[in-house]
Amino acid sequence: MGGLAVIEVVALDGDDTLWHSEQMFVDTQARFRDLLAPHVDLDHAALDARLLEVERRNLSTLGYGVKAFTLSLIETAIEVTEGRVLGRDVQAIVDLGKALLDHPVQLLDGVPEAVDALTGRYRVMIITKGDLLHQESKVARSGLAEDLWAVEIVSEKDAPTYERVLRRHRIDPASFVMVGNSVRSDVLPVLALGGRAVHVPYHVTWELEQPDHDPADGDFPVLAGLTHLPACLEAMGAEAA
Prior knowledge:
Blueprint: E1 9-12, H1 22-36, H2 44-62, H3 66-80, H4 87-102, H5 111-119, E2 123-129, H6 132-142, E3 150-154, H7 159-168, E4 176-180, H8 183-192, E5 196-199, H9 229-240
Parallel strand pairs: 1-2, 1-4, 2-3, 4-5
Helix pairs in contact: 1-4, 2-3, 3-4
């Protein structure tokens, strides 16, 4: 592939790319099912579908993150019990949300070493979405912040958002690579702007992060873990030489 620009800026997603996140939501959802089991005649799949429906409905007003998830859990509990959910159960759901907010930041395997290798060669930043306060806290607690060139916490990760971020930091899209676990949020919008992307799948993906269509094979590298990223970027850079 000729004509590619030299890679100058590498942006890393946060949740499920640098640190574990979605598995904790999955575990919390399982506890939510157990909490409601005595009060509703719904199997797990039906209750999960109702929650997903509420989350989808709330996305435009509540956005992403633990607080939005917790409110959707409460709303789902009220709906499926037809308002009969007990106050103590609502409090238990609130406590589930607080436990998510307080959960320690657990980096994925090889992340510190990969970030260290990258910062010596590129301007490295985080672009992650979700609740501002919680994401700022996770970045700070990750121990990675001091090595980063910039941190951007956004409410959505679509092409217009990336375009604003790149313009603000005066980054040429052609010299930019986005790395993350979500094809929908970390890959497709960046490719649409003329940038490059690397997909590092996590073992579980939230339904609302699934892409609307399957991307064409070969449009972007797919890695088994972040430990492979430095070599991948080096190969991508060689293509631009």
